[in-house]
Amino acid sequence: MGKKKTRFETEVIHSGYQPDEHQDSLVPPLYQTSTFTFGSAEQGEKRFAGQEEGFIYSRLGNPTVKILEDRIAVLEQGEAGLAFSSGMAAVSAVLVALTKSGDHILCSQGVYGCTFGLLELLKEKYAINHDFSLMDSMEAIEQEILPNTACIYIETPINPTMKLVDLEMVASVANKKGIPVVIDNTFCSPYLQTPLTLGCDVVIHSATKYICGHGDVIAGLVVGKKDFIRQVSRTTQKDIGGIISPFDAWLLLRGLKTLPVRLDRHCENALKLFNFMKRHPKIDKVYFPGDPEHPDYSIAAKQMKQPGGLISFTIKGTKETAQQFMDQLQLIKIAVSLGDAETLIQHPATMTHAVVPEEERRKMGITNTLLRLSVGLEAWEDIQEDLEQALEKI
Ligand code: LCS
User: Fold this and answer.
1) What pLDDT shows up at residue 36?
2) Strands, DSSP E only, in 117-160?
3) Which residue among 64, 241, 332, 366 is least crowded, i.e. fewest CB within 10 A of its CB?
4) Rounded CA gap, 52 and 54, in Å?
5) Pocket test for ligand 1, best of 107, 108, 111, 114 (most atoms within 8 A of CB)
6) Is the pLDDT score of 2 beyond 90?
7) Is the pLDDT of residue 1 over 80?
8) Can you say whether residue 262 is alpha, beta or left, with left for phi > 0 and alpha for psi between -120 and 50 degrees?
9) How far, in Å, is the centroid of ligand 1 from the Cα of 315?
């Protein structure tokens, strides 16, 4: 683009888009089309052969989607981006691209339930094994990397336990061994954490969450080196087909513009609620990276701009107490997903992580009294009052 590099808050609004390339439209146009016409048979042949630039068919690329892909690449400070129909389409396209039968994946001790399901599927169907690792020291990781380890897969903060992994530390070990490090950056968005700048290789997002921000799209994004993104776009994306619709890409471009403004508010609200929850007699433990007593507080301070908008906590009592508490909430909605304007609460053991066997859940730290709160954009006093009245009733 040859333009002056601007700050994050400006890039979320302008990067990847030039109005003069699109009839001077201020807002990126929605190219709601499945296919593109060729002026001649020869032109069609050239486009398919890669001898001429241009769009062919929306599963292989679309101008609205391309703007989103270019924008997320800028925000994550990577070379290229790729958009998918869901976060899981992104996770599966990346993991299938990086592995083959007989390989091994080293994974953080805790991942989103469906990512766990995918790892199990890869093991059962294709003999791609995995191990979970605390990733808390260089020595441990060095020992856990096997000769057939094809990639390291990390969530940080981990959904829903809010444990953190030191990305720079893991990347320094992996880089020496030439093993790609893949990060699911969903909980942070590029506004709070940019893993590629810490030495990681591939970033994945469930764009359904903070990037969309409005609870109306399911989508995924991947950012990495040009060669890797091209490989994924020509193989596991093109041939498995989990592409985003142009309209959903358009909505994400709209949501992205307010990402920093929204996240500042999510984080501000979360910090206030954390201080309330930490002192409440009916709440047992609170897991929040902004807690100076959080075991990974120093990692959060090092690699995250702010502690984020998610708080997990355990209610004193049993699974039933936790569920009774949820049922008393009035403003806060019981729903999975996160990063929306509305404050959402969910019970991981029976919802997002219900597919994880109980034994594994215990190892990850997901107990039956654990709840996850996605702090929304409402007045924090109203969210606190709702928590307060529901806690009073249990
Ligand atoms: N990665 C993380 C960290 C997630 O939290 C999710 C979804 C995904 C990937 C998958 O993204 P999707 O395909 O849904 O766009 N997490 C959810 C959650 O915690 N509640 O509902 C969905």
Assistant:
1) 98
2) 129-133, 149-155
3) 241
4) 6
5) 114
6) no
7) no
8) alpha
9) 23
